Amino acid sequence: MKQIDISCTHTSEHRGKTSMEEEDKVTNTIQFQKGAKQIPLDWPKQAWTHLELVRQKSPLVQCITNFVSMDFMANILLSAGGSPAMIHSVDEILEFTPKALGVCINAGTLTPDWLPGMKLAAQVANQSKKPWVLDPVAAGGSSFRLKACLELFDLKPSVVRGNGSEILALFKGCVDSNSKGVDSVHGSSDAVEAAKTLAQQSGSVVAVSGAVDYITDGDRVVCVHNGVPMLQKITASGCSVTALIAAFVAVDPSHAVEATASALAIFGVASEIGMDMARGPASLRTLLIDSLYGLDEATALGRVRINHF
Q1: Of 138, 216, 220, 298, which residue is the least packed, with the fewest Cβ within 10 Å?
Q2: CB within 8 Å of 103: residues ≥ 6 apart
């Protein structure tokens, strides 16, 4: 991958099928808004529409993820209406991955034994024309981890989601001597230009999580302003929002920027609602799941905050 010279946190029950006519109506709304670039997107409506699609279609999302995040990630997908499958064995991928509507690959507790399955799942997803999302956890933490994340990135994920330090590590292609593991030492705004370049070079949508989330396809940059600081105190919150992105992109793969921004905003809104009642990180974790499950249209339309950079 060509690099530009720049010195070298991680922040369901199925709700019932709608008729084909209703699903087509929802999808056509997205296509109309995307195609008419001269008409500003109604972002809150866009985010709600994507959540409705996930609830209607209950997409099967294969998650190859770390041991820390499996429970929370699965519960976030279920509460949003998706169907999680924590399948990572290389012996199952050729048969199972084509059945999934989306794939989430997370490099958290990475080992040499897991990497071949991750690569194979990415390749099968590409061959099956299914979107897959990469979470390059702590990409700059070690040479082994950086090499693995770069090899996965070269397989052209539909979306890459990481914190500022992780995106900068992919961009620079070098280990960060100041790395704090999964905790970012860079703000999300520090990685916007790197994200744009990565997106231009790879064709992937790149999302940088932080106090403000930035999503770019190399041309447009969209900002999401939803979320609460206490998410940094909940392990696997970043991993789980990556899985939610995979579900949103799975139901609308031709609009990955919009789907990614929608997922980040909806997750952020759920955390804000949960924070109104939470007493700390443990209760926020539970309340976030409940809030995502119970999120209604009026609340989403009133609280989603997305704009262009």
Answers
A1: 298
A2: 61, 62, 63, 64, 97, 121, 122, 125, 130, 131, 132, 133, 246
Nearest CA to 33 out of 20, 46, 24, 50 is that of 46
Please give the chain's pLDDT, 309 residues, in tens. Answer: 333 333 333 333 333 333 333 333 333 334 434 443 445 689 999 999 999 999 999 999 999 998 899 999 999 999 999 999 999 999 999 999 999 999 999 998 889 999 999 999 999 999 999 999 999 998 988 899 999 999 999 999 999 999 998 999 999 887 765 654 445 456 788 899 999 999 999 999 999 999 999 999 999 999 999 999 999 999 999 999 999 999 999 999 999 999 999 999 999 999 999 999 999 999 999 999 999 999 999 999 999 999 998
Match 């409940």 to its residue by tokens. Answer: 290
pTM given for the model = 0.85
Q: What is the sign, positive or negative, of the torsion defined by CA atoms of 297, 289, 227, 275?
A: positive
The single-letter code of the amino acid at 5 is D
Helical ranges in the chain per DSSP H: 20-35, 43-57, 70-80, 90-96, 115-127, 143-153, 164-172, 192-202, 237-251, 256-275, 281-294, 297-303
Distance of alpha carbon 107 from alpha carbon 160, whole angstroms:
12
Structure-token pair, residue 189: 């705004």
Alpha-carbon gap, residue 99 to 85, rounded angstroms: 11
> Taking CA 205 as the corner, what is the angle to CA 207 and CA 149, rounded to the nearest 5 degrees?
75
Q: Is 177 helix (H, G, I), strand (E, B) or coil?
A: coil
- Candidates 228, 244, 236; CA nearest to 278 is 228
